Amino acid sequence: MLQGVMSQGAFDAVVSTHHAEILRYLRRAIGAAGDAEDLSQETFVRAYRAYESLPKDANVRAWLFAIATNLTKNHFRSEARRRRAYGEVQATMRETTGGAPEAEVVSRETGALVDGIIQTLPLKQRLAFMQRKLHGMEYEAIGYSLGCSAESARAHVFQALRKIRHGLDGYGRLPGSQGDE
Amino acid sequence: MNDKPVACVRIADDLLAAAIGEASPQAGRRVERHLTACGSCRREFEEYHALDQTVVALREEVLPKAEVSEARDRLETRLADLRQRLLAYRVFPSPLGHILIAQSELGITAIEYLERGTSLKASRLNDEPNVELVEGGDKLEAAYRDLLEYLTGRRRRFEWPLDLRLARSAFQRSILQATAAIPYGAVVSYAGLAQEVGRASAARAVAQALRWNPLPIVIPCHRVIGVSGALTGYAGNKLGLKQRLLSVEGVPTTRAAGALGIQSDAMYVLYPGDREYCLPTCPSLDRREPVPLTRFASREHAEAVGFAPCTACRPDLHPISR
Question: Which residues of B are less than 8 Å from A110 in CB distance?
């Protein structure tokens, strides 16, 4: 006998649990280069289509991140788009760093700066970094979403951190070095 | 980085891992030891640690509530629209060839004998407007198992919710619903079914409506036959299939003058509206207005759905012998 036909209620729960986070992920993943909401809709539409055939013990969150990550990669596959995004980020960073920073806003501005540098990272590093540091995903899941091993995923994250540190260094804004020297 | 001492280069990965809290205990101790001796690595460690704290702050960031809930609403609208169109399908091998089973969120929506292949490509559902097909999961397998049980005579009822969305018209829907109510091991004629839905003169329209049955077997159009007892059409030209399904249910068929038909004289009959079933020779039938009858393959089939033996012809005392 059939129990409840399609996993209707179950998918509603998937949406209510993960929608805000996927939207937030895509917002940063896409940056100013596109419509994150569009891609988050697409993520859940694809997920809904495939949900029936998803193994019961699947990690739904990692699976959604993988779909969103794939859509992001497709989105940036067009090199022109990628360059446009990059250009916009560079412009924002110049704005962010213009003018003398007041002491009390330093930390917030450093956050914005980090954010800006994140946007300039190569895509895989950026997505790996975001999944790890902004969403707390396991390296295993990050590798799955990027089509690489957990070790490579970790290497991407470390590489990203190094670049961010060097980036901040370039702006004389390494938080750890403030006041020490 | 190249001018760094070898020891610093070696420990760089562990240092970074330790600074962001991801180092193993051993690596952590190694880094600790190194940092007590190396000032530049200590600074680097602190920088990474501080950077990690800054990033943690980004992690706490939330999108504006209104923005999220509006986006959520738009997503729900799109999903609702998709739900209307989405059917999950799977193709299974069966003794009758490959069978495609599809379901919507409301119920089993289509069963199709695939004639021209073994995959979705061979399905007529591809031509259905407003239908989007996706590969389905385990639940369809449960339906398939039920079908196999039916085909091997181990199941008489399907307890599935059905979704008649593929019905072409309200009339066809009513015919499909009436057909679904025909009991296992029984047959009625197109004319009888027409009478059942209050359209006594519409036997031809009934036959037409059953030519496209989106749910064969489950909606047992094989139990609907010509008024003469001839099997007539089934799923295009698959009369043999119709005969096979009927014989699974114990309905006796015969080939007379080249045409397949049921053996009317070997089946019990039920007058519309009666609670008692009769022998085909029951004298009470002669006294009543001649109308299309429901015929049962056996007493057991008739009694299984609540009918009692007629007290005049006593089919219980004089069962038909085949």
Answer: 54
A135: chain B residues, CB-CB within 8 Å: 59
State if pTM tops 0.90. Answer: no
Residues of A with CB under 8 A from a CB of B: 1-3, 5-6, 8, 11, 15, 19-20, 23-24, 27, 37, 40-41, 44-45, 48-50, 52-54, 56, 107, 110-111, 114-115, 133-136, 158, 161-162, 164-165, 168, 174-177, 180
Question: Nearest CA to A40 among A30, A52, A32?
Answer: A30
Total domain count for chain B? Answer: 3
Q: Would B317 be classed as within a structural domain? A: no
CA distances from B146 to B104, B140, B247 (A): 18, 10, 18
**Is B82 part of a structural domain of the chain?**
yes
Q: Chains A, B: CB contacts under 8 A, how many?
A: 140
Residue B135 covered by a domain: yes
Distance from CA of B269 to the nearest CA of A (A): 31
Is residue B221 among the annotated active site residues? Answer: yes
B215/A contact by beta carbon, under 8 A = no
Q: What pLDDT sits at residue B183?
A: 96
The pLDDT tens digits of the residues spanning B90-106 come to: 999 999 999 999 999 88
Mean pLDDT of chain B: 92
Structure ipTM: 0.77
Asked whether residue A89 carries a pLDDT value surpassing 80, the answer given is no
Give residue-wise pLDDT tens across range A8-34. 678 899 999 999 999 999 998 987 766
Q: Give the integer Cα–Cα distance in Å for A86 and B264.
A: 81
Q: Where are the beta strands (DSSP E) in chain B?
A: 86-92, 99-103, 108-113, 132-135, 186-189, 224-225, 253-256, 259-262, 268-270, 276-278, 294-296, 308-309
Query: Does residue B133 sit in helix, strand or coil?
Result: strand
Provide, as residue numbers in chain A, all residues whose Cβ is less than 8 Å from the Cβ of B161: 2, 5
Structural domain boundaries, residue B126: 64-166
The whole-number pLDDT of residue A174 equals: 61
Yes or no, beta carbons of B71 and A19 under 8 Å apart? yes
**Domain boundary at B132, B147, B166, which?**
B166
Which of B121, B144, B166 is the last residue in one of the domains? Answer: B166
Indicate whether B264 pLDDT > 70.
yes
Task: Please indicate whether, in this complex, the C-beta atoms of A45 and B62 are within 8 angstroms of each other.
Answer: no
Is B51 an 8 Å CB contact of chain A? yes
Residues of B with Cβ-Cβ distance to A23 under 8 angstroms: 63, 68, 71
| pLDDT given for residue A91 in this prediction | 62
Is the same domain home to B296 and B229?
yes
- Is B319 contained in some domain? no
Which domains are assigned to chain A? 9-172 (1.20.140.160)
